[in-house]
Specification:
Blueprint (H helix, E strand, L loop, with lengths): L2 H9 L7 H28 L6 H39 L10 H15 L3 H4 L7 H8 L3 H4 L3 H15 L1 H32 L4 H16 L12 H12 L5
Helix pairs in contact: 1-2, 1-9, 2-3, 2-9, 3-9, 3-10, 4-6, 6-8, 8-9
């Protein structure tokens, strides 16, 4: 089984009921399509008998320009999806104690005191704690229970997974899928670079600087479907600053 087959097979395990999953799937599988089309375009330029070596390089790089831009944008989007996934996990909340529930607050304080009284080696390897005790530790700063930050983060992750199993599973699946999408994009970028046949590092740097400037521009608004009258009217109003009644 080829690397392409392995990546596509893994990407297909993503669920399609979340927008990030759909984008990861589209970018990951689409990367190979970009590579195929770009390689064919570069090959056509390389086989042009009317061009010398320098002309072939210029033509190949011009043919590959849009593909480099698309891959650069896809890399940036995958980075954003990864950041959003980690933020989504971090934002998941623990079951809250009702405001003014003094009894529960005292009980949790007592649990933290019990943990704090344990030998240091046991606090560094906490296991088999009840969910209530884990929640008591996690709801306060690590030093209140005398545990390390890494242990505190581990317990927090475990408790969040217990409280939000479906959400955590979906986000973790996306993070795993991201690795394969990033690999597909990396393989495609490598193929594009080889096909571009840069004469020197300076030539490649100048080309990539142009690509970076291109992706820094805001995307142009998509043109309306010529058969969609409502879309055409909306675009006309947008261009001329006409407010919809």
């Amino acid at each position: 089984m080829s690397t392409r087959d392995i990546i596509n097979k893994q990407l297909e395990t993503l669920t399609s009921d979340r927008i990030p999953s759909r984008r990861i799937l589209t970018i990951g599988k689409g990367a190979f399509g970009i590579r195929d089309a770009a390689t064919a375009a570069a090959s056509a330029a390389a086989n042009n008998p009317h061009l010398n070596d320098a002309g072939k390089r210029v033509t190949k790089q011009a043919a590959l320009r849009d593909s480099f831009v698309e891959i650069a944008r896809n890399k940036a989007e995958l980075r954003r999806i990864r950041e959003q996934a980690h933020a989504e996990l971090k934002a998941l909340a623990l079951p809250a104690i009702e405001k003014g529930d003094v009894v529960s607050e005292m009980r949790e304080a007592e649990m933290r005191a019990i943990v704090r009284a344990l030998p240091q080696e046991k606090r560094d390897t906490l296991s088999k704690l009840s969910p209530a005790m884990v929640a008591a530790i996690v709801r306060a700063a690590p030093e209140v229970s005398g545990v390390s930050r890494s242990v505190h983060e581990q317990l927090h992750s475990e408790l969040i997974e217990t409280a939000h199993p479906e959400k955590v599973a979906a986000v973790r699946a996306e993070l795993e899928g991201l690795q394969f999408a990033e690999l597909a994009v990396k393989e495609t970028e490598k193929a594009l670079t080889e096909a571009a046949d840069f004469a020197s590092g300076d030539e490649e740097q100048a080309f990539r600087t142009q690509i970076a400037a291109e992706i820094a521009k805001p995307p142009e608004p998509s043109k309306p479907d010529p058969n969609d009258l409502d879309a055409i009217i909306s675009e006309h109003r947008r261009r001329h600053g006409i407010r919809a009644e």
